[in-house]
Amino acid sequence: MLKIFYEDLYSNGMRSYQLIITILLLFFTMTDLSAQNTRELDKIAASQGAASQLLFSVDLHKEELIHPSDFERDDECIVRGGIPNFLAKITDGQDVTVAFIGGSLTQANYCYRMQISTYLQARYPSTKFKWVNAGVSGTGTDLGAFRIQEQVLTQHPDLVIIDFAVNGAYAAGMEGMIRQIIQHDHHTDICLIYAILGGQTKLYRNGKIPLHIEALEALADHYRIPTVHLGMEISHLEFQDKLLWKGDAQAAGERILFSTDGIHPLKAGGNLYAAAIARGIDKMKGLSRPASHPLPKPLVSSEWDIAGMYRPDDIADFDVKWGAISTKESKLKAFNGWFDTVMVAGEEGAQCSFAFEGDIFGLFDIGGPEVGQLEVWVDGHRVNLHKLQSDSFQPYEIITGDNGNTPLNRFNAYCNNRYRGQYDLIKLPQGKHEISFRISSLKADKRLILGPSQQEDIVQHPAKYDSSVIYLGRILLRGKPILKTTRKQEIGDMRPQIYRQG
């Protein structure tokens, strides 16, 4: 497909490789993601729940060791520059750190992460491994670009394994993660792995790959990063009627049951994913020498190079209605892996404010039955919000004019009798901005949001839902914060006309 598209463009006189790739990436990321229907995307979003601890360990006495099969397909692993620095270290028995970053398949223990970690630790017994789990279920590469500095790069990894293929795989966000890793340390190796959804097994069987993965392959080519397609052996087994992609044990019979939901593999399915990674690592051995990874010009954008997340009390001012609580000692202890403390308020008008220079801000917080809505103020004016739905990156944009009050609602249908991590982003014109969040006096119709099938808990416990609490874990910025000590000097009395509403 790529070859045909290139030839068509060249026949029309277009000679710029950079422009061709950029057009392709924009096309892929704005196209309906292959085999990701609304029901599957809802499952992915709903999976976002509690945190895992950032560091994990492997007990070789308790874990089952996978045995990679003799499955062989040349394009299962594309080596490119490989992972030479990591392989040299483990071959020499040096200490290494391996970080996994992705969505729910990464966060869960046995979708592949624990199996491949056990395999490596058993194969290289003289190497001391440090393992990092930076998986956040139900999230994509946009949040990944904000998270990677705090959750991955502060651990100084030797190898970063990235998996967002079933979570939208927004190419610009992926490039932001890649570039941040290389900027942090030119000797850190990177490997992209591609999990799949059910309909994509047919694509692999026909010698094709999903469109959004083609977009990531263009990035991998540009940065000389190895990639592993996790679904090729699974596609082969399904074609031979030796694997059932989705079902239950009774329906599977003698076949391998991959999953019960069509997305998240059971342990047997995770073993197959891990086996593909193991085969890829074996293929990369000895094919390149340790080297510094160059940082070429961006393929899509360098905008995500400066994405980051910040502790709220480091960059923001809070009024007396807010307080800090330790998650470890609270009902939110399940989120301690992401937030050791959260800023909490529940009174109408409770305000926090900060300033930054950039074009995107947002919050990474905890949703639950009692959470409320936030009014958003930008440069001294309350703004109305509209969520973009164009592709896998879906920030809010500012609506100018008198369109009523549209607060940022922190309650959604996934908050039914449960707590969950969640995030939202708001896009602004590039520049210096003063931001304020204030708890709104308006309450969302939570019964309506939950819908007819989720009424039991809110009917039985209405008081639990009848409040407007905010649990703020991190502030997200695509840009740089303007610290409290210099805020007045840098911001002054700036009031851009774009936000005036009469």
Automatic annotation (TrEMBL):
Q: Which CDD domains does this chain map to?
A: SGNH_hydrolase (cd00229)
Top-level taxon of the source organism: Bacteria
Q: Where is the SGNH hydrolase-type esterase domain?
A: 100-269
* A Pfam family assignment: Lipase_GDSL_2
User: What is the name of the protein in this document?
Assistant: SGNH hydrolase-type esterase domain-containing protein
Species per Swiss-Prot/TrEMBL record: Sphingobacterium ginsenosidimutans
